[in-house]
């Protein structure tokens, strides 16, 4: 019987690494074969530069973070990443395959929902479509209301502060906020693509959803939250990395002059993204 020696362990480890890399390379190649499932042009508003410049500078890699939002019922000064979505109600969650216990406003009922695991589903992201236009109109109406109140009450310091915040939030919504909105979810890609046929505006990708209990209009209801996207970042390949690298120390620079860069991202057979093109605006290239 052959004795296991240290070099056997070394060979086994190398073999596992090679096999893992081969599987990853084959998967990436298959994902990019044929026509992309979708192809969208995202700006700095939707793909943000990394904030950990020090680490990125050391390894010379750049990963752009996909920044998406969800429609909100009311205007709030801050976005919360795990805010429940009204359209992800009990009916929709059951459609997505969740086995939901009856919601009960008791300690036992809440514990049952705390034990429910997140499930991977398909999510639909809409770029600069009706969801963003609705959000823009909502913020604009709210800002106009706050500005009108402040104008009619010039001596009220609180109203003046709210008007200033409303003006800033409207400017952010118009110029810097992401136009990429989560609008739907499903279990199969084909029905979702039939519902959202525009491949330059609607992206289908994997994500994880979890149900939870929330108080809505003084009653307990089941709502879902998106815990994460399966791939929340997009690696930037050469030569586009060299194009975007000068912007890294300055991080986000969207403002009156508009986004500093635009990136064309394709999503393949496995609904995984890769960069196919990138351009930097004149003001982005000229910024100090």
Distance between the termini: 69 Å
Side by side, the strands of the main sheet go: 4-7-6-8-9-5
Give the total of domains: 1
The whole-number mean of residue pLDDT values reads 82
- How are helices and strands ordered from N to C? HEEHEEEHHEHHEHEEEHEEH
**Structural class by helix and strand composition:** alpha+beta
Q: Outline, from the CA principal axes?
A: globular
User: How is the main sheet built?
Assistant: 6 strands, mixed
Instruction: Tell me the Rg in angstroms.
Output: 23 Å
How much helix, percentage-wise, in residues? 25-40%
- Bin the strand percentage: 25-35%
Unreliable spans are none
Instruction: Please provide the count of β strands.
Output: 12
Write the layout of secondary structure elements.
Elements: H1 6-32, E1 38-43, E2 47-48, H2 53-59, E3 63-66, E4 69-70, E5 85-89, H3 90-95, H4 107-114, E6 119-127, H5 130-152, H6 157-175, E7 180-186, H7 189-195, E8 202-216, E9 219-229, E10 233-235, H8 240-244, E11 261-267, E12 273-280, H9 282-286
Parallel strand pairs: 4-7
Antiparallel strand pairs: 1-11, 2-3, 3-10, 5-9, 6-7, 6-8, 8-9, 11-12
Helix pairs in contact: 5-6
